[in-house]
Amino acid sequence: MNSPLFDTKLVAALMSPPTPGYLALVERMRMSLPFATALPYGGEAARHLAHFAERVNDLAEDELTELYEVSFVAEDASDLLRAARAIEHHGCAACSQALPVLQRLLEPLDGARNPFAALFKGLCCVMLTCRELSAKTAGPGIPYTTCPLESS
Fold first, then answer.
1. What's the 3-state SS for 7-51?
2. CA-CA-CA-CA dihedral for 59, 52, 50, 42, to nearest 10
3. Which of 3, 18, 80, 112 is the one with CA 20 to 30 A from 64?
């Protein structure tokens, strides 16, 4: 698979605190969404990720950084960053670590109509699909095989 939407480094960067260039990553992800919808598991993820891109489109980078900082208490931001780093370094093998973090943070964000809720919903869709696909193809003692998060 060669879709930037499921590139491990892009997923990890979108989960990480915004830095200069974050909005360019959001745009890169947005541009890949038409390709993702064609994938058998990409439609739901693409819908949420497009919503996130639309919601943050008009924000300046400093506003996005401020939104991130007010959205996450220090412990949550640390958990999110650890999950992002795990995904960056271990791809699908980190889904089991990252998914509970995203799911725990999702409910309060969704209730507050925070743009990061749409991002996390999309990433949860990607990770749940990853686990489902790899569970179908994994053999005994092999927890993961092909992963939508890993570029090929």
1. CHHHHHHHHCCCCCCHHHHHHHHHHHHHHHHHCCCCHHHHHHHHH
2. 150
3. 3
CA atoms 100, 102, 108, 113: torsion sign: negative
- CB 57, CB 50: distance < 8 Å: no
Q: Is 79 in a helix, a strand, or coil?
A: helix
Give the long-range contacts of residues 83-90, CB within 8 A, separation 24 or more. 83/15, 84/11, 84/12, 84/13, 84/15, 84/16, 85/12, 87/8, 87/11, 87/12, 87/15, 87/149, 88/8, 88/9, 88/12, 88/13
pTM of the model: 0.80
Domain range for 29 is 4-137
User: Could you tell me if residue 149 is inside a domain?
Assistant: no
Rounded (10°) CA dihedral 75, 81, 82, 88: 170
Q: How many domains does the chain have?
A: 1
